[in-house]
Task: inverse folding
């Protein structure tokens, strides 16, 4: 399944952790976790796009 939210689970957890840290400790320290969550989400999205592109391209058969 290509549209599953489960791929983004690490980013979702990091975002929730960042909100908790912002509320309990400090905004600046929580912003680090928020930046990590955005980075993880971007990396997951890039990986999913690369996988979708590789499936969409027709492959050449090698003659042997």
Result:
């Amino acid at each position: 399944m290509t549209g599953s939210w489960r791929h983004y689970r690490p980013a979702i957890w990091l975002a929730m952790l960042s909100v908790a840290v912002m509320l309990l400790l400090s905004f600046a320290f929580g912003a680090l976790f928020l930046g990590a969550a955005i980075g993880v989400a971007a990396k997951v999205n890039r990986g999913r796009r690369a996988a979708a592109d590789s499936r969409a391209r027709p492959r050449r058969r090698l003659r042997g």
